[in-house]
Amino acid sequence: LKRLPRSFYTRSALTVARELLGKILVRKIGGKTLTGKIVEVEAYLGESDPASHAFRGKTERNSVMFRAGGYLYVYFTYGMYFCSNVVTGQEGIARAVLLRAIEPLEGIEEMKKNRGFTGEFTLTNLTNGPAKLCEALHIRREQNGADLLGKQIFITHGENVPGKSIVRTSRIGINAAKEKKWRFYIKDNQWVSKK
DNA sequence: TCCACGATCGGCT
DNA sequence: GCCGATCGTGGAG
User: Fewest C-beta in 10 Å: which of A8, A63, A116, A176?
Assistant: First the structure.
């Protein structure tokens, strides 16, 4: 259960995106350990990507995206949700990989509590979306900029995902650059969001 | 200073 | 399939 090294993250966003599939996201909180396998991601390529938060350059909100690889970029959206990204590449160049879905492994009871279900609960519904996984793992404003080589959130080696079970498609929920196939997910995994 | 809108989700038709 | 919730952000003026 060793953390991935900085060198894993300082490569291109598309490479890191593909290779994050199958890795284990680990969240330590209140003496508990919550983990999940990364099954769906999207790459965002900064100034050269109209769909990226960093398309128009550096601002207060997106500044973490400009760091060297291996930090967490968390943003608040729709007035009520948080989404998280793994920052990749070199310092000064904004690149990130949005974590869209994980398959819950450890700490499922705690994740249920964090999600605060009112209606029907299903295991799939626990972490099958970017805002859902943040809620389940209690990732919020305070985790923006967290070092992925630190103690509270990190990523470890998981299973090797063969190329033939990786699907590459357009990104979801954006209006610009819809033609770019920068979304990657593990084929037939039930936590991958539909569409 | 203002204000339209968003890398979403859950409930309703 | 559609719509409302809810508010920080940043581009426009």
Answer: A116
